[in-house]
Amino acid sequence: MLKDAVYLDHAGTTLYSKSLMEKYMADMMSNLYGNPHSASTSSQLSTARIENTRLSVLRFFKADPEHFDVVFVANATAGVKLVMDAFRSQPKGFAYGYHQDSHTSLVGVRENATLSRCLDDESVERWLLGAEDLVTKSPDSDVRLFTFPAQSNLDGRRLPQSWLERVRNLAHEPESTTYTLLDASALVSTSQLDLSDPSKAADFTVLSFYKIFGFPDLGVLIVRKDAGAILQQRKYFGGGTVDVVVCLKEQWHAPKGQSLHETLEDGTLPFHNIIALDTAIDVHRSLYGSMDRIASHTAYLARKLFEGLKALKHANDKTVCVMYSRGYGAGKCSQAQGPTIAFNVKNSYGAWVTNIEFERLASIRNFHIRTGGLCNPGGVASALELQPWEMRRNFSAGLRCGGETDIYAGKITCMWKALLSTPLKVVVALLFRQAPHGK
């Protein structure tokens, strides 16, 4: 599949293994799986596999089924939207605080909040210490939601998961309830998400499995059961989530109540994908063992690549790469920094190399790498020192993420990102170091 290609876009999706596809194909060819919303033998087989997969997911993340439930969704964004739908159904709405390193999908929740605020590390700490509020004004709502990524999808920086327990123990907001939403998508691709202690876990955790296994295209919302009641207050209901619906002359319905996921999984589940997930977990374990081994391997590769890129010089001794992933300098790659490297490139005259030029050269060399705004508006603005007025001006001038122009008024507006994962060999991390000097 790869042949001579160098694949560095594991942040988008990692590569699925040959053994996974073979085992899944054999399963599909040997068994008859029906729509789970039925009582036939084939349907009951699908239902059994789905429930087994729920338990496999919980085991994979060291979560006790007594304290957590698994809600299957299309991807992490769909999980975020499901949480948002429940919170905006609150009679007085909700207040929303999100970290500046949040993915675009987390930022978008603010449009449905009564009040919202973007926080940096210092703002979060001041709030947790009681020096300021989550939002700048006191909202009418007594429900609040705080969200942040476990690992930045921009530069790989890992944020303190200790915030989760501290939010739960807030003493200076007795009249409100603050829930936590953790975006674990970037973290889980190479590291263990440990939910063994419910008191230290987020109320709601979202992630996409294709970032871990490459296949299937499926996401999950992991709900701490103690916080699950608020999700059941959403107004919308879909097929499979209700026991009875009255339409004629009256409007009434009775939601299913046996388990949390039954009330949240609208319509027919992507049962073939869920069955594939069960296979993916087994194959992944047999190939790589623990996630700790993967974390150690990718941390080593990332440090080698970071050091190689940082050391690159043009023939005139000018630096080639401007680095934005700062966790490697702290010497704590596996704890404070994920195996992601965000950078830009300058030519020998010190001018920025555009996305288009870099992508063209990468394509010629058969490199697969991610470029652009990387779906992290706050992180990009902070790293590139782009003020709001500059971003508005750039937009008015026609600059778009993925467009042909990414430099305006002498400032770069995007960057490149390499994320390493398990299929990579050590030699891949040394490729940049072996490249000849630029001109």
What does this structure look like?
Helix 1 packs across helix 9, helix 2 packs across helix 9 and helix 10 runs parallel beside helix 15. Strand 6, helix 7 and strand 7 form a beta-alpha-beta unit. This protein has 15 helices and 17 strands. It has 439 residues and is an alpha/beta fold. Strands 2-8-7-6-5-3-4 form a 7-stranded mixed β-sheet, with helices on both faces. 42% of the residues are buried. The chain is globular, with a radius of gyration of 23 Å. It has 2 domains: 149 residues, Alpha-Beta Complex (Aspartate Aminotransferase, domain 1), CATH 3.90.1150.10; 255 residues, Type I PLP-dependent aspartate aminotransferase-like (Major domain) (Aspartate Aminotransferase, domain 2, 3-Layer(aba) Sandwich), CATH 3.40.640.
Q: Could you give the count of β-strands?
A: 17
Query: Biggest sheet: strands side by side, in what order?
Result: 2-8-7-6-5-3-4
Rg, please? 23 Å
Q: Give the full name of the CATH homologous superfamily of the largest domain.
A: Type I PLP-dependent aspartate aminotransferase-like (Major domain)
The name CATH uses for the topology of the largest domain is Aspartate Aminotransferase, domain 2
Helix/sheet category? alpha/beta
Uncertain segments: 425-439
The overall number of domains is: 2
* Helical content (DSSP H or I, runs of 4+): 25-40%
| Average pLDDT number | 90
Write down the overall geometry.
Answer: globular
| Overall CATH class of the largest domain | Alpha Beta
What's the CATH architecture of the largest domain?
3-Layer(aba) Sandwich
